[in-house]
Write a structure and sequence with these properties.
single chain, about 280 residues, about 65% helix, disordered C terminus, DUF2989 domain-containing protein, DUF2989
């Protein structure tokens, strides 16, 4: 009998110190604008979207100082520009009664940002760089770009976790065992500080597809240990037929699994063995 994957709700909190870091970054971007006014002339002037604006300005300086921008740098510029444009679009809708020129300034900045984004997308549309192909696949579902990324992966030329994360979404549909192989690499090579807890739910969905419900339970439980996600315990338990003794055993395995991730010993762990299939074992 097919069972549905347990529904999880995530809660996130913004730490106060991030605001302090943002203020420091804001000052840095102000200095950049003062020394490089051409990098900021098209941006709005007030304090709205300061994080997005600061990231964009700092990365524009990176591009200015690069002899020849790399595909990854152009990809990052596209992302920062998107975030800025999306933020200033919302800000442009806020009407200033006492200072209508602020609204007009944001509206101008939004119009220019959309044009700049479109021009950069056009400029990079035929670039075969893996990061730019990934961007076109991600944003436009461009099939030739998707094929470029898949081919690069098959040749062993993809190591960036965000690109691998896109690839694993593809392989979940066409080759679940290959998806597990990608997750195995991510779990084994990603430092715990950079580990994405959503990968655990991704693995759980692969095992659900293959109807390995004990592993669905295990990886879902591991996700709850790393996050503040809330889980329906009855629904989770139903995955293993309500077997409380088995649940206790799997709970302990989930704790061990998380400890292996934290210690950087996942590649040699029992958790890694679960992701190995005959297709994934290399001589």
């Amino acid at each position: 009998m097919k069972r549905n994957l347990v529904i999880i709700t995530s809660f996130s909190f913004i730490s106060g110190f991030l605001g302090l870091l943002g203020c420091e970054n804001d000052r840095n971007s102000d200095v950049i604008c003062k020394n490089n006014p051409e990098l900021c002339a098209d941006l709005h002037r007030d304090s709205w979207c300061r994080f997005e604006k600061g990231d964009l300005v700092r990365h524009r300086l990176v591009l200015k100082e690069a002899d020849t921008p790399s595909g990854k740098q152009l990809f990052q510029q596209l992302i920062y520009l998107e975030k800025y444009s999306n933020c200033i679009e919302l800000a442009a809708g806020v009407q200033h009664i006492l200072n209508p020129e602020r609204t007009q300034d944001r509206q101008r900045a939004y119009a220019v940002s959309t044009q700049t984004l479109s021009e950069l997308q056009e400029y990079t549309k035929d670039n075969p760089d893996i990061y730019l192909a990934y961007y076109r696949w991600l944003r436009f579902n461009d099939k030739p770009s998707q094929n470029l990324v898949i081919e690069a992966y098959q040749q062993g030329n993809v190591s960036d976790p965000q690109i691998l994360n896109q690839l694993v979404s593809y392989y979940v549909r066409v080759s679940p065992d290959e998806a597990k192989r990608i997750y195995l690499g991510l779990f084994s090579t990603t430092s715990f500080d950079n580990f994405n807890s959503d990968w655990l739910l991704g693995v759980a969905s692969v095992f659900q597809q293959q109807q390995h419900f004990e592993n669905v339970y295990l990886f879902t439980k591991a996700n709850t240990l790393l996050t503040e996600n809330q889980v329906n315990e009855e629904q989770l338990l139903s995955l293993i037929g309500g077997n409380h003794a088995l649940a206790k055993q799997l709970d302990q395995q989930a704790h061990t699994f998380i400890n292996d991730l934290k210690s950087g010993n996942f590649a040699n762990s029992a958790g890694a063995a679960l992701l190995l299939t005959p297709e994934n074992i290399k001589d």
